[in-house]
Structure to design on (412 residues):
């Protein structure tokens, strides 16, 4: 069965990998063209890395393709009341801006790593390997795929967040999703918290209404209903937490927003 | 003096949003129990797929049930939510890839919802009951006898 979201995330990951390889090759090629170390550093310093990646290496086309998948999320929705087309389009544009800005960060990281390697007299192979395998802080293909997949899931959670505008202030929400050996600590923490209001969620788990538990998260906050107990596992989550604490494996988890400070 | 009919409180978007959320959860629970919209058991999974699912071979997997529960990662059923609400009603459903998964399951003979029968009879009765109770409440809220001139 085709899974367009996974396909879009994979294609974006491949595009990021391609752009990184081309950029590294172009930098290292300066040496083959007879530039001295100092000249290479001067060229690198003068480059607009965001423009280089987005325009010259054409990552902007791949970001546009990823955004088309977002449009697929919107296509089946009828916009009424608090959830306006404009609000969701604004969310889409913010995510697009985020990808564009990350392209710039990626370019600058590659430039810095390449410059360090050239200054240290490292071989081309070791510079390229260091950058492309992610040791220099550059996105690996699997990281880029996770990033794109997470962004799409977060976008769908934002839809939930917009719809919650219809709920009264005292409405409560529960953390839906599996509790198993893959569930991360922050998700266990939220699953064990039971029913909370929006204000309580924001106070105890800042940003989680939109982010969930972070990358590749399988959970979301959903309005509490008469059958919520069948879709949540508060007791199970508390049990896992107690077991982890007794084994000294519990590490006071934080939401993505808390981690960012 | 009797108040006009239009003074009886109407439904609100908030009321329908709550109904939408409740129905979405009830559909999730019913589907996970292995039954379709007509309350019949889902068609069995292929042996190859069922074996891989039981063995936990899939990424982000959250169910290892051999009995068809239409749950692998849980993303599809969790994606069922209220998509819009106004004073006339609410729309619930899936979006993007998850909507495609629902359609694919229907094509394979595992129907969570159909145009002719959107929800199970049990859920339909529950909605009727909630709407009836709200109509009664709205009428009582005007707190006096109504006089309707007919004909």
């Amino acid at each position: 069965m085709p899974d367009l979201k996974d396909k879009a995330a994979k294609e974006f990951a491949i595009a990021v990998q391609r752009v990184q390889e081309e950029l590294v090759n172009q930098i290292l090629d300066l040496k083959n063209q007879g530039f001295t170390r100092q000249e290479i550093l001067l060229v690198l310093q003068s480059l607009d890395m965001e423009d280089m990646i987005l325009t010259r290496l054409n990552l902007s086309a791949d970001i546009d393709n990823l955004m088309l998948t977002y449009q697929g999320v919107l296509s089946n929705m009828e916009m009424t009341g608090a959830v306006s087309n404009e609000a969701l389009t604004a969310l889409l544009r913010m995510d697009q801006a985020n990808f564009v800005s990350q392209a710039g960060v990626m370019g600058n990281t590659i430039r810095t790593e390449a410059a360090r390697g050239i200054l240290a007299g490292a071989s081309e192979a070791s510079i390229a390997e260091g950058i492309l395998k992610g040791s220099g802080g550059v996105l690996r293909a699997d990281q880029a795929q996770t990033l794109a997949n997470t962004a799409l899931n977060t976008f769908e959670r934002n839809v939930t967040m917009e719809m919650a505008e219809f709920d009264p202030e005292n409405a409560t929400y529960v953390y839906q999703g599996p509790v198993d050996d893959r569930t991360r600590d922050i998700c266990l923490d939220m699953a064990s918290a039971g029913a909370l209001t929006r204000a309580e969620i924001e106070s105890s788990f800042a940003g989680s209404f939109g982010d969930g538990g972070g990358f590749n998260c399988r959970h979301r906050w959903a309005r509490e209903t008469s059958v919520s107990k069948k879709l949540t596992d508060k007791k199970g989550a508390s049990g896992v937490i107690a077991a982890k604490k007794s084994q000294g494996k519990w590490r006071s988890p934080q939401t993505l927003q808390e981690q960012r400070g | 003096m009797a108040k006009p009919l239009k003074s009886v409180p109407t439904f609100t978007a908030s009321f329908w949003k709550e109904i939408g959320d409740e129905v979405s959860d009830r559909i999730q629970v019913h589907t996970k129990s292995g039954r379709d919209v007509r309350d019949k058991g889902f068609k069995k999974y292929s042996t190859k797929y069922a074996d891989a699912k039981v063995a936990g071979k899939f990424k982000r997997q959250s169910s290892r049930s051999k009995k068809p529960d239409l749950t692998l990662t849980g993303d599809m059923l969790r994606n069922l939510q209220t998509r819009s609400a106004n004073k006339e009603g609410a729309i619930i459903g899936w979006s993007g890839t998850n909507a495609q998964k629902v359609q694919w399951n229907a094509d394979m003979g595992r129907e969570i919802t159909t145009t002719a029968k959107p929800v199970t009879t049990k859920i339909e009765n529950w909605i009727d009951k909630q709407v009836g109770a709200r109509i009664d409440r709205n009428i009582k809220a005007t707190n006096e006898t109504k006089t309707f001139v007919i004909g």
